[in-house]
Amino acid sequence: MSSAERYVARLKPGSTADLMRSIEDRLADYALSDDAGCGELLKKAMRYARAEWPAMKRVLESGDVEVSNNISEQSVRKLKMDLRNAGNIGSESSAVDNAFMYSVIESCKHNEIDPGKYISYLLGELKTAHEGEDLTALLPCYCSL
Protein backbone atom coordinates (compact mmCIF):
# COMPACT_ATOMS: atom_id res chain seq x y z
CA MET A 1 0.00 0.00 0.00
CA SER A 2 1.22 3.50 -0.74
CA SER A 3 1.32 6.02 2.10
CA ALA A 4 -1.72 7.84 0.64
CA GLU A 5 -3.72 4.58 0.49
CA ARG A 6 -2.62 3.68 4.02
CA TYR A 7 -3.72 7.12 5.25
CA VAL A 8 -7.19 6.74 3.70
CA ALA A 9 -7.55 3.19 5.07
CA ARG A 10 -6.71 4.36 8.60
CA LEU A 11 -9.50 6.94 8.53
CA LYS A 12 -12.24 4.58 7.27
CA PRO A 13 -15.06 3.74 9.72
CA GLY A 14 -14.22 0.72 11.87
CA SER A 15 -10.53 1.13 11.20
CA THR A 16 -7.53 2.58 13.07
CA ALA A 17 -9.13 5.98 13.70
CA ASP A 18 -12.20 4.46 15.38
CA LEU A 19 -10.08 2.11 17.47
CA MET A 20 -7.88 4.98 18.61
CA ARG A 21 -10.94 7.12 19.41
CA SER A 22 -12.26 4.28 21.59
CA ILE A 23 -8.93 4.02 23.41
CA GLU A 24 -8.84 7.78 23.88
CA ASP A 25 -12.35 7.71 25.37
CA ARG A 26 -11.32 4.99 27.82
CA LEU A 27 -8.23 6.96 28.81
CA ALA A 28 -10.43 10.01 29.43
CA ASP A 29 -12.83 7.93 31.56
CA TYR A 30 -9.90 6.61 33.54
CA ALA A 31 -8.58 10.14 34.08
CA LEU A 32 -11.97 11.17 35.49
CA SER A 33 -12.03 8.16 37.85
CA ASP A 34 -9.06 9.56 39.78
CA ASP A 35 -7.20 6.21 39.60
CA ALA A 36 -9.96 4.51 41.59
CA GLY A 37 -9.22 0.91 42.53
CA CYS A 38 -5.98 0.63 40.61
CA GLY A 39 -2.65 -0.71 41.76
CA GLU A 40 0.54 1.32 41.47
CA LEU A 41 1.76 -0.39 38.30
CA LEU A 42 -1.52 0.17 36.50
CA LYS A 43 -1.56 3.80 37.62
CA LYS A 44 1.97 4.24 36.27
CA ALA A 45 1.04 2.59 32.95
CA MET A 46 -2.07 4.73 32.56
CA ARG A 47 -0.18 7.95 33.33
CA TYR A 48 2.35 6.97 30.69
CA ALA A 49 -0.37 6.19 28.13
CA ARG A 50 -2.12 9.51 28.76
CA ALA A 51 1.15 11.44 28.47
CA GLU A 52 2.13 9.71 25.22
CA TRP A 53 -1.31 9.75 23.60
CA PRO A 54 -0.76 12.91 21.51
CA ALA A 55 2.30 11.27 19.94
CA MET A 56 0.34 8.05 19.34
CA LYS A 57 -2.33 9.98 17.43
CA ARG A 58 0.27 11.12 14.89
CA VAL A 59 -0.22 7.81 13.12
CA LEU A 60 -3.54 9.26 11.89
CA GLU A 61 -1.85 12.34 10.39
CA SER A 62 0.27 10.56 7.79
CA GLY A 63 0.34 7.27 5.97
CA ASP A 64 4.14 7.29 6.14
CA VAL A 65 4.16 6.64 9.88
CA GLU A 66 4.35 2.96 10.85
CA VAL A 67 1.85 1.67 13.39
CA SER A 68 4.28 -0.89 14.75
CA ASN A 69 8.01 -1.52 14.89
CA ASN A 70 7.79 -5.10 13.60
CA ILE A 71 10.23 -4.49 10.73
CA SER A 72 12.99 -3.27 13.01
CA GLU A 73 12.19 -5.93 15.63
CA GLN A 74 12.49 -8.71 13.06
CA SER A 75 15.75 -7.35 11.67
CA VAL A 76 17.46 -7.65 15.06
CA ARG A 77 15.78 -10.90 16.17
CA LYS A 78 18.59 -13.18 14.96
CA LEU A 79 21.21 -10.91 16.50
CA LYS A 80 19.40 -10.94 19.86
CA MET A 81 19.04 -14.73 19.76
CA ASP A 82 22.75 -15.14 18.96
CA LEU A 83 23.69 -12.83 21.83
CA ARG A 84 21.39 -14.67 24.22
CA ASN A 85 22.82 -18.01 23.14
CA ALA A 86 26.39 -16.69 23.47
CA GLY A 87 25.77 -16.10 27.17
CA ASN A 88 28.97 -14.67 28.55
CA ILE A 89 31.16 -13.29 25.77
CA GLY A 90 34.18 -13.17 28.04
CA SER A 91 35.07 -9.55 28.64
CA GLU A 92 33.87 -6.03 28.01
CA SER A 93 36.51 -5.62 25.30
CA SER A 94 35.38 -8.71 23.42
CA ALA A 95 31.75 -7.61 23.79
CA VAL A 96 32.58 -4.30 22.08
CA ASP A 97 34.41 -6.17 19.27
CA ASN A 98 31.50 -8.60 18.92
CA ALA A 99 28.97 -5.76 18.73
CA PHE A 100 31.10 -4.00 16.11
CA MET A 101 31.28 -7.09 13.91
CA TYR A 102 27.54 -7.73 14.24
CA SER A 103 26.94 -4.12 13.24
CA VAL A 104 29.15 -4.45 10.15
CA ILE A 105 27.53 -7.73 9.09
CA GLU A 106 23.97 -6.48 9.61
CA SER A 107 24.78 -3.24 7.74
CA CYS A 108 26.06 -5.31 4.84
CA LYS A 109 22.90 -7.42 4.82
CA HIS A 110 20.72 -4.30 4.99
CA ASN A 111 22.58 -2.85 1.99
CA GLU A 112 22.46 -6.19 0.13
CA ILE A 113 26.25 -6.66 0.18
CA ASP A 114 27.95 -10.00 0.83
CA PRO A 115 29.61 -9.51 4.26
CA GLY A 116 32.62 -11.69 3.34
CA LYS A 117 33.36 -9.72 0.17
CA TYR A 118 32.87 -6.44 2.01
CA ILE A 119 35.25 -7.34 4.85
CA SER A 120 37.91 -8.49 2.33
CA TYR A 121 37.47 -5.25 0.39
CA LEU A 122 37.57 -3.17 3.58
CA LEU A 123 40.76 -4.79 4.88
CA GLY A 124 42.44 -4.22 1.49
CA GLU A 125 41.45 -0.56 1.48
CA LEU A 126 42.51 -0.02 5.09
CA LYS A 127 46.03 -1.31 4.30
CA THR A 128 46.63 1.68 2.03
CA ALA A 129 44.74 4.27 4.08
CA HIS A 130 46.64 7.14 5.64
CA GLU A 131 46.10 8.54 9.11
CA GLY A 132 43.47 11.31 9.15
CA GLU A 133 42.02 10.22 5.78
CA ASP A 134 38.23 10.40 5.45
CA LEU A 135 37.06 6.77 5.18
CA THR A 136 33.34 7.48 5.01
CA ALA A 137 33.17 6.13 1.45
CA LEU A 138 34.15 2.69 2.79
CA LEU A 139 30.96 2.32 4.87
CA PRO A 140 28.55 -0.36 3.59
CA CYS A 141 25.88 2.21 2.79
CA TYR A 142 28.24 4.01 0.35
CA CYS A 143 30.04 0.96 -0.98
CA SER A 144 29.01 -0.55 -4.31
CA LEU A 145 30.34 -4.10 -4.41
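(ticket continues) Second input and output from the same batch:
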Amino acid sequence: MEKLYALLQTPAFWLLLGLGIAALLLLYHGYRRLKLAALENVSYSRTLSEEGLFVGESMEMVETVRNPGWLPLFRVKLTFYLPAGITVDGTPIKEYTAMTSLFHIPPFGVVTKKHILQGDKRGRFQLGSASILYFGCEFEFQNTPVFYAYPAAKGVPADGDTPLYRAGNVLASRKYIEDPFFPVGIRDYRPGDPMRSINFKASARSFHGGRAQLMCNEYDSSRTVDSMIFLDLNEYAGATGDDKTLLETGLAYACYLFCRGAENEGRVGFCANSSTGEAPYVYVPCGRGEEHRLGVLRLMAEMDVYARRDYSMHVILSRYGKETPPEVDLYLITPHTDEKMTDLLHALKRAGRNVQVIPLGGAE
Protein backbone atom coordinates (compact mmCIF):
# COMPACT_ATOMS: atom_id res chain seq x y z
CA MET A 1 0.00 0.00 0.00
CA GLU A 2 2.86 2.39 0.80
CA LYS A 3 4.43 1.80 -2.64
CA LEU A 4 1.09 2.38 -4.36
CA TYR A 5 0.55 5.56 -2.35
CA ALA A 6 4.03 6.75 -3.28
CA LEU A 7 3.35 5.96 -6.96
CA LEU A 8 0.16 7.99 -6.93
CA GLN A 9 2.12 10.95 -5.55
CA THR A 10 4.57 11.04 -8.47
CA PRO A 11 3.86 13.46 -11.35
CA ALA A 12 5.21 10.93 -13.88
CA PHE A 13 2.39 8.49 -13.10
CA TRP A 14 -0.30 11.03 -13.82
CA LEU A 15 1.50 12.18 -16.95
CA LEU A 16 1.67 8.63 -18.30
CA LEU A 17 -1.97 8.02 -17.35
CA GLY A 18 -3.04 11.17 -19.18
CA LEU A 19 -1.02 10.21 -22.24
CA GLY A 20 -2.59 6.74 -22.19
CA ILE A 21 -6.14 8.10 -21.99
CA ALA A 22 -5.38 10.59 -24.76
CA ALA A 23 -3.99 7.77 -26.94
CA LEU A 24 -7.14 5.66 -26.36
CA LEU A 25 -9.37 8.61 -27.24
CA LEU A 26 -7.38 9.23 -30.42
CA LEU A 27 -7.61 5.54 -31.33
CA TYR A 28 -11.36 5.53 -30.64
CA HIS A 29 -12.04 8.63 -32.74
CA GLY A 30 -9.70 7.39 -35.46
CA TYR A 31 -11.48 4.00 -35.54
CA ARG A 32 -14.86 5.73 -35.60
CA ARG A 33 -13.85 7.84 -38.63
CA LEU A 34 -12.43 4.79 -40.39
CA LYS A 35 -15.54 2.76 -39.54
CA LEU A 36 -17.83 5.44 -40.97
CA ALA A 37 -15.87 5.31 -44.22
CA ALA A 38 -15.87 1.49 -44.22
CA LEU A 39 -19.65 1.25 -43.65
CA GLU A 40 -20.23 3.00 -46.97
CA ASN A 41 -18.81 -0.06 -48.73
CA VAL A 42 -20.60 -2.71 -46.68
CA SER A 43 -23.18 -4.75 -48.60
CA TYR A 44 -26.23 -6.41 -47.06
CA SER A 45 -28.89 -8.81 -48.31
CA ARG A 46 -31.72 -10.97 -47.01
CA THR A 47 -32.77 -14.15 -48.73
CA LEU A 48 -35.76 -16.42 -48.07
CA SER A 49 -35.62 -20.19 -48.44
CA GLU A 50 -39.06 -20.21 -50.13
CA GLU A 51 -41.23 -17.83 -52.12
CA GLY A 52 -44.16 -18.71 -49.91
CA LEU A 53 -45.43 -21.02 -47.20
CA PHE A 54 -48.75 -22.21 -45.88
CA VAL A 55 -50.16 -20.59 -42.77
CA GLY A 56 -48.60 -22.22 -39.71
CA GLU A 57 -45.50 -23.41 -41.58
CA SER A 58 -41.98 -22.00 -41.23
CA MET A 59 -39.05 -21.11 -43.47
CA GLU A 60 -35.58 -19.62 -43.15
CA MET A 61 -34.52 -16.04 -43.68
CA VAL A 62 -30.76 -15.52 -43.98
CA GLU A 63 -29.08 -12.14 -43.46
CA THR A 64 -25.72 -11.72 -45.18
CA VAL A 65 -23.28 -8.85 -44.50
CA ARG A 66 -20.07 -8.40 -46.51
CA ASN A 67 -17.09 -6.29 -45.46
CA PRO A 68 -14.87 -5.66 -48.52
CA GLY A 69 -12.27 -3.66 -46.55
CA TRP A 70 -9.31 -4.37 -44.28
CA LEU A 71 -10.84 -2.77 -41.16
CA PRO A 72 -12.62 -5.12 -38.71
CA LEU A 73 -16.13 -3.83 -37.97
CA PHE A 74 -17.32 -4.46 -34.43
CA ARG A 75 -20.87 -4.07 -33.13
CA VAL A 76 -22.56 -3.26 -36.41
CA LYS A 77 -26.24 -2.84 -35.53
CA LEU A 78 -28.49 -3.43 -38.51
CA THR A 79 -32.19 -2.60 -38.16
CA PHE A 80 -35.11 -3.52 -40.41
CA TYR A 81 -38.89 -3.51 -40.05
CA LEU A 82 -41.21 -6.51 -39.99
CA PRO A 83 -44.91 -6.52 -40.96
CA ALA A 84 -47.60 -7.77 -38.61
CA GLY A 85 -48.96 -11.28 -39.03
CA ILE A 86 -45.74 -13.31 -38.86
CA THR A 87 -43.61 -14.88 -36.15
CA VAL A 88 -39.82 -14.41 -36.18
CA ASP A 89 -37.62 -16.67 -34.05
CA GLY A 90 -40.58 -17.54 -31.85
CA THR A 91 -41.73 -13.93 -31.31
CA PRO A 92 -45.15 -13.03 -32.80
CA ILE A 93 -45.16 -9.70 -34.64
CA LYS A 94 -48.44 -7.95 -33.76
CA GLU A 95 -47.70 -4.60 -35.44
CA TYR A 96 -45.13 -3.02 -37.75
CA THR A 97 -42.00 -3.64 -35.64
CA ALA A 98 -38.28 -2.87 -35.84
CA MET A 99 -35.83 -5.75 -35.46
CA THR A 100 -32.08 -5.27 -34.81
CA SER A 101 -29.30 -7.72 -35.62
CA LEU A 102 -25.78 -7.32 -34.19
CA PHE A 103 -22.79 -8.25 -36.37
CA HIS A 104 -19.03 -8.44 -35.83
CA ILE A 105 -17.46 -8.55 -39.30
CA PRO A 106 -13.79 -9.45 -39.82
CA PRO A 107 -11.68 -7.84 -42.56
CA PHE A 108 -12.72 -9.03 -46.04
CA GLY A 109 -15.27 -11.23 -44.26
CA VAL A 110 -18.83 -12.40 -44.80
CA VAL A 111 -21.15 -12.97 -41.84
CA THR A 112 -24.56 -14.64 -42.03
CA LYS A 113 -27.36 -14.90 -39.50
CA LYS A 114 -30.37 -17.22 -39.80
CA HIS A 115 -33.91 -16.51 -38.62
CA ILE A 116 -37.04 -18.69 -38.66
CA LEU A 117 -40.13 -17.02 -40.15
CA GLN A 118 -43.63 -18.41 -39.67
CA GLY A 119 -46.79 -17.20 -41.39
CA ASP A 120 -49.52 -16.59 -38.81
CA LYS A 121 -52.17 -15.37 -41.23
CA ARG A 122 -52.87 -15.44 -44.95
CA GLY A 123 -51.45 -12.61 -47.04
CA ARG A 124 -48.59 -11.04 -48.97
CA PHE A 125 -45.75 -9.82 -46.75
CA GLN A 126 -42.90 -7.48 -47.62
CA LEU A 127 -39.96 -6.97 -45.28
CA GLY A 128 -39.03 -3.33 -44.73
CA SER A 129 -35.77 -1.75 -45.87
CA ALA A 130 -32.72 -2.21 -43.64
CA SER A 131 -30.34 0.42 -42.31
CA ILE A 132 -27.26 0.95 -40.14
CA LEU A 133 -27.34 4.03 -37.89
CA TYR A 134 -23.91 5.01 -36.61
CA PHE A 135 -23.19 8.35 -34.91
CA GLY A 136 -25.87 10.24 -36.76
CA CYS A 137 -25.05 8.70 -40.17
CA GLU A 138 -27.56 6.31 -41.73
CA PHE A 139 -26.61 3.68 -44.30
CA GLU A 140 -29.75 2.28 -45.98
CA PHE A 141 -30.09 -0.95 -47.96
CA GLN A 142 -33.07 -1.31 -50.30
CA ASN A 143 -33.41 -5.05 -49.94
CA THR A 144 -37.10 -5.76 -49.32
CA PRO A 145 -37.93 -9.41 -50.08
CA VAL A 146 -41.55 -10.47 -50.50
CA PHE A 147 -43.15 -13.75 -49.50
CA TYR A 148 -46.68 -15.16 -49.41
CA ALA A 149 -48.58 -16.98 -46.69
CA TYR A 150 -50.99 -19.30 -48.49
CA PRO A 151 -54.24 -20.48 -46.86
CA ALA A 152 -53.86 -23.36 -44.45
CA ALA A 153 -54.93 -26.32 -46.61
CA LYS A 154 -57.80 -27.74 -44.57
CA GLY A 155 -59.43 -31.10 -45.20
CA VAL A 156 -62.87 -30.93 -46.78
CA PRO A 157 -65.93 -32.72 -45.34
CA ALA A 158 -66.80 -35.50 -47.78
CA ASP A 159 -70.59 -35.39 -47.57
CA GLY A 160 -73.00 -36.15 -50.40
CA ASP A 161 -73.58 -38.96 -52.86
CA THR A 162 -70.70 -38.08 -55.16
CA PRO A 163 -67.28 -39.16 -53.83
CA LEU A 164 -65.20 -36.10 -53.13
CA TYR A 165 -62.06 -37.57 -54.63
CA ARG A 166 -63.07 -39.79 -57.51
CA ALA A 167 -60.52 -41.75 -59.52
CA GLY A 168 -60.68 -39.41 -62.50
CA ASN A 169 -60.67 -40.15 -66.21
CA VAL A 170 -56.98 -39.83 -67.10
CA LEU A 171 -54.81 -42.84 -66.30
CA ALA A 172 -51.40 -42.21 -64.78
CA SER A 173 -48.37 -44.48 -64.98
CA ARG A 174 -49.04 -46.22 -61.64
CA LYS A 175 -51.26 -49.32 -61.49
CA TYR A 176 -53.33 -48.73 -58.35
CA ILE A 177 -56.10 -46.20 -57.69
CA GLU A 178 -54.51 -45.72 -54.27
CA ASP A 179 -50.92 -46.89 -54.02
CA PRO A 180 -50.54 -48.79 -50.69
CA PHE A 181 -46.78 -48.22 -50.75
CA PHE A 182 -47.06 -44.41 -50.71
CA PRO A 183 -49.02 -43.14 -47.65
CA VAL A 184 -49.38 -39.35 -47.65
CA GLY A 185 -51.08 -38.78 -44.29
CA ILE A 186 -53.83 -39.71 -41.84
CA ARG A 187 -57.42 -38.48 -41.94
CA ASP A 188 -60.81 -39.16 -40.31
CA TYR A 189 -62.66 -42.32 -41.31
CA ARG A 190 -65.28 -41.82 -44.01
CA PRO A 191 -68.16 -44.24 -44.75
CA GLY A 192 -67.05 -46.67 -47.43
CA ASP A 193 -63.36 -46.67 -46.51
CA PRO A 194 -61.89 -50.22 -46.69
CA MET A 195 -60.89 -51.93 -43.46
CA ARG A 196 -57.28 -52.24 -44.65
CA SER A 197 -56.91 -48.44 -44.62
CA ILE A 198 -57.83 -48.03 -40.91
CA ASN A 199 -54.87 -46.95 -38.79
CA PHE A 200 -55.57 -48.59 -35.42
CA LYS A 201 -52.66 -46.94 -33.62
CA ALA A 202 -53.81 -43.47 -34.64
CA SER A 203 -57.43 -44.41 -33.84
CA ALA A 204 -56.46 -45.40 -30.30
CA ARG A 205 -55.09 -41.88 -29.70
CA SER A 206 -57.90 -39.94 -31.40
CA PHE A 207 -61.01 -38.78 -29.58
CA HIS A 208 -63.85 -36.50 -30.67
CA GLY A 209 -66.50 -35.37 -28.20
CA GLY A 210 -65.14 -37.81 -25.62
CA ARG A 211 -65.52 -40.78 -27.98
CA ALA A 212 -62.89 -42.73 -29.89
CA GLN A 213 -62.53 -41.63 -33.51
CA LEU A 214 -61.51 -43.99 -36.31
CA MET A 215 -58.58 -42.75 -38.39
CA CYS A 216 -57.51 -43.94 -41.84
CA ASN A 217 -54.31 -43.90 -43.82
CA GLU A 218 -54.48 -41.74 -46.91
CA TYR A 219 -52.51 -42.98 -49.88
CA ASP A 220 -51.07 -41.39 -52.96
CA SER A 221 -53.54 -41.40 -55.82
CA SER A 222 -52.58 -43.36 -58.92
CA ARG A 223 -54.76 -41.45 -61.36
CA THR A 224 -54.77 -37.82 -62.28
CA VAL A 225 -57.93 -35.84 -61.57
CA ASP A 226 -58.74 -32.72 -63.57
CA SER A 227 -60.88 -30.32 -61.54
CA MET A 228 -62.24 -26.77 -61.50
CA ILE A 229 -62.84 -25.16 -58.10
CA PHE A 230 -65.48 -22.43 -57.71
CA LEU A 231 -65.46 -20.40 -54.49
CA ASP A 232 -68.60 -18.36 -53.81
CA LEU A 233 -67.76 -15.19 -51.85
CA ASN A 234 -70.85 -13.10 -52.57
CA GLU A 235 -72.12 -13.59 -49.05
CA TYR A 236 -68.99 -11.94 -47.65
CA ALA A 237 -69.49 -8.37 -48.92
CA GLY A 238 -68.49 -6.06 -46.07
CA ALA A 239 -67.55 -9.10 -44.04
CA THR A 240 -66.86 -8.92 -40.33
CA GLY A 241 -66.61 -11.43 -37.51
CA ASP A 242 -67.92 -14.87 -38.44
CA ASP A 243 -68.12 -13.96 -42.15
CA LYS A 244 -64.34 -13.49 -42.21
CA THR A 245 -64.01 -16.93 -40.65
CA LEU A 246 -66.20 -18.36 -43.40
CA LEU A 247 -64.00 -16.70 -46.02
CA GLU A 248 -60.83 -18.18 -44.54
CA THR A 249 -62.50 -21.59 -44.27
CA GLY A 250 -63.63 -21.40 -47.89
CA LEU A 251 -60.13 -20.50 -49.04
CA ALA A 252 -58.68 -23.30 -46.90
CA TYR A 253 -61.05 -25.81 -48.57
CA ALA A 254 -60.21 -24.46 -52.03
CA CYS A 255 -56.49 -24.59 -51.29
CA TYR A 256 -56.76 -28.17 -50.08
CA LEU A 257 -58.59 -29.32 -53.20
CA PHE A 258 -56.21 -27.41 -55.44
CA CYS A 259 -53.09 -28.81 -53.77
CA ARG A 260 -54.37 -32.39 -53.81
CA GLY A 261 -55.17 -32.12 -57.50
CA ALA A 262 -51.77 -30.60 -58.27
CA GLU A 263 -49.97 -33.28 -56.23
CA ASN A 264 -51.67 -35.96 -58.32
CA GLU A 265 -50.49 -34.25 -61.52
CA GLY A 266 -53.99 -33.26 -62.54
CA ARG A 267 -54.97 -30.05 -64.33
CA VAL A 268 -56.63 -27.79 -61.75
CA GLY A 269 -58.31 -24.39 -62.13
CA PHE A 270 -59.69 -21.86 -59.67
CA CYS A 271 -62.48 -19.30 -59.84
CA ALA A 272 -63.95 -16.92 -57.22
CA ASN A 273 -66.42 -14.04 -57.54
CA SER A 274 -64.08 -11.51 -55.96
CA SER A 275 -62.28 -8.74 -57.82
CA THR A 276 -58.47 -8.69 -58.00
CA GLY A 277 -56.68 -5.73 -59.54
CA GLU A 278 -58.50 -4.72 -62.72
CA ALA A 279 -60.29 -8.05 -63.11
CA PRO A 280 -63.93 -8.18 -61.91
CA TYR A 281 -63.44 -11.70 -60.55
CA VAL A 282 -60.79 -14.40 -60.23
CA TYR A 283 -60.61 -16.96 -63.02
CA VAL A 284 -57.63 -19.23 -63.69
CA PRO A 285 -58.34 -22.01 -66.23
CA CYS A 286 -57.23 -25.56 -65.60
CA GLY A 287 -53.50 -26.05 -65.84
CA ARG A 288 -50.56 -27.83 -64.31
CA GLY A 289 -46.92 -27.15 -63.53
CA GLU A 290 -45.07 -25.28 -60.81
CA GLU A 291 -45.64 -21.79 -62.24
CA HIS A 292 -49.38 -22.45 -62.52
CA ARG A 293 -49.51 -23.80 -58.95
CA LEU A 294 -47.63 -20.83 -57.49
CA GLY A 295 -49.75 -18.35 -59.46
CA VAL A 296 -52.98 -19.72 -58.01
CA LEU A 297 -51.57 -19.89 -54.48
CA ARG A 298 -50.45 -16.25 -54.75
CA LEU A 299 -54.00 -15.26 -55.75
CA MET A 300 -55.41 -17.16 -52.77
CA ALA A 301 -52.94 -15.44 -50.45
CA GLU A 302 -53.80 -11.94 -51.72
CA MET A 303 -57.59 -12.19 -51.91
CA ASP A 304 -59.15 -9.44 -49.81
CA VAL A 305 -62.26 -9.90 -47.70
CA TYR A 306 -63.38 -6.35 -48.62
CA ALA A 307 -62.82 -6.69 -52.39
CA ARG A 308 -65.61 -5.73 -54.76
CA ARG A 309 -68.02 -8.57 -55.64
CA ASP A 310 -70.24 -7.57 -58.55
CA TYR A 311 -70.78 -11.02 -60.08
CA SER A 312 -72.96 -13.74 -58.62
CA MET A 313 -71.60 -17.28 -58.63
CA HIS A 314 -74.66 -18.39 -60.62
CA VAL A 315 -73.59 -16.18 -63.56
CA ILE A 316 -69.97 -17.36 -63.39
CA LEU A 317 -70.79 -21.05 -62.95
CA SER A 318 -73.38 -21.02 -65.74
CA ARG A 319 -70.66 -19.76 -68.09
CA TYR A 320 -67.51 -21.60 -67.06
CA GLY A 321 -69.29 -24.72 -65.86
CA LYS A 322 -70.51 -25.29 -69.41
CA GLU A 323 -67.26 -24.21 -71.08
CA THR A 324 -65.08 -26.48 -68.93
CA PRO A 325 -64.35 -29.84 -70.66
CA PRO A 326 -66.72 -32.63 -69.55
CA GLU A 327 -63.95 -34.77 -68.02
CA VAL A 328 -63.16 -32.03 -65.47
CA ASP A 329 -64.71 -32.34 -62.00
CA LEU A 330 -66.54 -29.26 -60.74
CA TYR A 331 -66.35 -28.27 -57.06
CA LEU A 332 -68.56 -25.49 -55.70
CA ILE A 333 -67.67 -24.16 -52.24
CA THR A 334 -70.53 -21.96 -51.05
CA PRO A 335 -72.33 -20.80 -47.90
CA HIS A 336 -75.70 -20.85 -49.66
CA THR A 337 -77.47 -22.45 -52.64
CA ASP A 338 -80.79 -20.94 -53.65
CA GLU A 339 -83.38 -22.46 -55.98
CA LYS A 340 -81.79 -20.88 -59.06
CA MET A 341 -78.37 -22.31 -58.21
CA THR A 342 -79.88 -25.71 -57.43
CA ASP A 343 -81.53 -25.85 -60.86
CA LEU A 344 -78.21 -25.01 -62.53
CA LEU A 345 -76.38 -27.73 -60.58
CA HIS A 346 -79.02 -30.31 -61.55
CA ALA A 347 -78.73 -29.25 -65.18
CA LEU A 348 -74.95 -29.74 -65.09
CA LYS A 349 -75.35 -33.18 -63.53
CA ARG A 350 -77.96 -34.19 -66.11
CA ALA A 351 -75.44 -33.19 -68.77
CA GLY A 352 -73.05 -35.79 -67.33
CA ARG A 353 -70.89 -33.42 -65.29
CA ASN A 354 -69.42 -34.58 -62.02
CA VAL A 355 -70.39 -31.81 -59.56
CA GLN A 356 -69.67 -31.66 -55.83
CA VAL A 357 -71.11 -28.93 -53.57
CA ILE A 358 -69.10 -28.25 -50.42
CA PRO A 359 -71.11 -26.32 -47.81
CA LEU A 360 -69.73 -23.63 -45.54
CA GLY A 361 -70.98 -22.72 -42.09
CA GLY A 362 -74.07 -24.89 -41.97
CA ALA A 363 -75.12 -24.14 -45.56
CA GLU A 364 -77.66 -26.39 -47.21
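Agent notes: The longest strand covers residues 178-188. The radius of gyration is 30 Å. Closing as not reproducible unless the customer responds.
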